[in-house]
Design brief:
Strand content: 35-45%
Radius of gyration: 15 Å
Helix content: 10-25%
Number of strands: 7
CATH topology: 2,3-Dihydroxybiphenyl 1,2-Dioxygenase, domain 1
């Protein structure tokens, strides 16, 4: 089973997310932000399908990274998240919470041995997203 297919996003804590987004936009050309996140859009050479990688600062008081106490969280793109989570459970990897499903994909979370929370994302393509579930993360 292929596990990670790419980087889905980079999330980090910030004292002032709006201000740091402005700095990155001004000095590095990253932005402007949509809904608090930057979407780096691309086309897969292998499949020809569109995808994106998300860059997003979170408020430093966010609870979204818990139980990790780290200042960052990686998001990895995966295929067949339910099967992957089942396999990771068999391998005794710590699963955090339960899988969630939204119009833009399925999400699950694990912890690595050093206490880093990792978000696993099985994205849906644009056509399926139009027909999918609605929800907020």
């Amino acid at each position: 089973m292929k596990r990670v297919t790419g980087i889905g996003g980079i999330f980090f804590k910030s004292k002032n997310p709006a201000k740091i987004q402005q700095w990155y936009q001004k000095h590095l050309g990253i932005g402007p932000a949509r809904s608090g996140a930057i979407m780096f859009e691309w086309i897969s050479k292998a499949s020809g399908k569109a995808g994106c990688t998300v860059w997003s600062p979170f408020d430093r008081k966010t609870k979204y990274f818990r139980p990790s106490s780290k200042e960052f969280m990686f998001n990895y793109r995966v295929r067949n998240l339910p099967a992957l989570l089942k396999q990771l459970r068999r391998e005794r990897v710590r699963i955090v919470g339960t899988m969630q499903e939204y119009d833009f994909g399925k999400f699950g979370w694990i912890m690595d041995p050093e206490g880093n929370k990792i978000e696993l994302w099985e994205p849906v393509d644009a056509d399926r997203r139009k027909r999918g579930k609605r929800g907020k993360r």
